[in-house]
Amino acid sequence: MKRPLLLLSLISILTLPVLAACDNNGDKTLRIALDIEDEGRYDELFAIFTERTGIAVSATYGQDIGKLIGTKDEPDIIKTSTVVVTSMTPSLLDLTTLINEDEEIDTDNYIDSLMDALTIDGKVYALPTSLNTSLLYYNKALFDASADDLRDVLGLTQSESVYPQADWTYDDYQAAGVVLSKFTGETPNVTYTSFGAEAQLNWWGEWLVYVQQMGGTFYAPDSNNRVCAINSPEGIAATQFFRDKSMGGVGTKFAPDAIESASSYSFLGGNVAMIFGGHMGDWFSYDALGIDWDIQVLPKPVDRPSAKGGEISADAFGISVRSKQVSEAFSFLKMWTGSEGATKMYEFGKVGALKNMQDLIEALPEEQQKDINTDALFDAIEEAVTLPRERDFSKVMREIVMAELYKLMYTGRGSETDVTIVLNRIKTQVDQYYATLYGS
Amino acid sequence: MASKAMHLSFKKNFHRNYKYFLMFGGIAILGFGLFYLYPIIRTFVLSLTDKTIFDTDPNYVGWANYLYALKSDPLFAKSIQQSLVFALISGALVLVTSLVLAMLLNSRVKFIGVFRTIYFLPFIIPSFAVGAVYKNLFNPTTGLINNLLTALNLIDINNPPLWYISPDSALMTMIVISSFGFGVKMLVFLAALQGIPSELYEVAEIEGASKTQQFFKITLPLISPMLFFNVILITIDGLRAFSLAFVMGNGQGWPSNSTLLFPIYMFMTAFNMPFRLGYAAAMAYIFFLIILALTGIHFLMSKFYVQKDITIS
């Protein structure tokens, strides 16, 4: 008698979690995995969808999507981006047929460059929910504090704004940056207390934008992204500007070098006045820290006033190839990436990827509109380009390019001073990498 | 007849013992099979494919991943080299520090229990937190270390050591920091030291042996099995070092790949774009063979310094 009872108890204990995991009322539930910083952000959107369709959306936060896919436990809706989508296509459903058969969705409504990045070999793998583009961020309080000096150096009258303008050149950017950099002591024993701009020494974002704005490219055109062209005159000029910004003497330098960067000089810390590039995902942090900030389009090289080159990318979502609820997941994606979802995204602190996003924002009540230069945001989107579509681009940038460029950004043991030598070394290593990987 | 009886008795004993063996060892065997043997085999199978995390249908590539790692990947060679340097120097420092501290904590002084607790306390702090603290301490301009060295006139204030900022000194800085990771090894030595009868030292004193002679003739031989155990432990720990290198190198071997230890490179290969899981698996196998070879060398060398037959009469 005891044994069956024991057996029954053991089976009951084992069954409990399984039963608990089951949906009691049989309602449909869509699963989605989101980043930890998005916890609770989209709850309102999920609630609206559930109210309309009766389909619940269950979100988990901070779980690695790669591991979920590896263990075949991925959600129905998978987060990707214009940057990683190329690597993720085996896990993502081709949405092309669904899109073509649906009258409510038109991919022409999304920003073209982002849709192009999410379309591989004619197949659409994801739809964009929010975008990020390179902007010039500035701390208004720091600009106000140096207003007189800025007017002097930029030749402005009392009625003109000292804040960055849409027609700023690199010269204006540097002149303002130098004024905004404060230091004590005299050359060569100068100690900076604040800087005009941040320096992105571990991420290619800022440096690559300088290269592209000056007319250079990372890969040689027509090389199928296999040959590096970074030692071009444009690449050298851009890298020299990037280096001088941190390593130049008083009167040239306006950003921290690698040593100073390690000592908490940052826009977020309130002791750096501008960021060239930046990330729109940081807007929330700026507001939370009470920084009085605004945006402007990126400054341009002196002789290239309409240069393109800022970066544009987007968070996007696709549907798992193993999902059993494809049509339900697609309905949710349609809502999320459509006008209603994009407007909600703006309320949640992000900017949707629709072409008419500016109209959607301007249609909102004034108190719901963010008090920033919205025109600059959409002008910046117009002049931005997506990253090269190359599977190993991030790896090459991280492990070869930034590793070598870093050596130009400090003084002391192991440092380099000659930009051309470093760029030639990068080219050799990158070309060798691709030659070994794909054959020369 | 006798042989049949013996056979039956063996069979009976075997069945009886087999039952107990399964009862006691079953869970462990199941655990080993599921959590060690299966991943080991699965990793090997993976290493023969071009699988990325997102691939559902990877291709078989034979030994290509192994050949690429050994012949064509400069970062693989660099990460292995840096891991070996890290394990060797940091290991030697940890070994010496833990032995010296264990000897100090084996002294007969008041409140020795308190001292032992205090010395062990730092080792319950996660390595990630330790790394972040040391980054502040070693900051070239604002860190306590350089400020202290400047105050003592030991460094030039205009040309201070750059520690983890320079690719030339970042690995060494990490080695210095890791040499404070003596916690468990110190306890192992302390336990071994406490097992040495005090009479041996008393006799040695009477015979006129100096402290150095006592150390080399009594202490070292008697703790040599534990020394061997610690050497193995330290070698494997050093080669597998991850958390500290992850914090110090921002998860990517920063600056300029100078803190790129092998486990970090393997992690980056598998979990950063382009997510080459198959290649990372092949690297893991090569590294496993290197650790196996080093452990084998340690076992061979142990013949020369481990006192196996210790008889204290």
What does this protein structure show overall?
The complex is a heterodimer of chains A (440) and B (313). Chain A has two domains: 184 residues, Periplasmic binding protein-like II (D-Maltodextrin-Binding Protein, domain 2); 221 residues, Periplasmic binding protein-like II (D-Maltodextrin-Binding Protein, domain 2), CATH 3.40.190.10. Helix content of chain A is 41%, strand content 15%. The termini of chain A are far apart. About 1% of the residues of chain A have low confidence. Chain A has 19 helices and 13 strands. In chain A, helix 14 packs across helix 15. Chain B has one domain: MetI-like (MetI-like fold), CATH 1.10.3720.10. Helix content of chain B is 70%, strand content 0%. Chain B has 13 helices and no strands. In chain B, helix 3 packs across helix 12 and helix 8 runs antiparallel to helix 10. The mean pLDDT of chain B is 89. At the A-B interface, helix 3, helix 12 and helix 18 of A face loops of B.
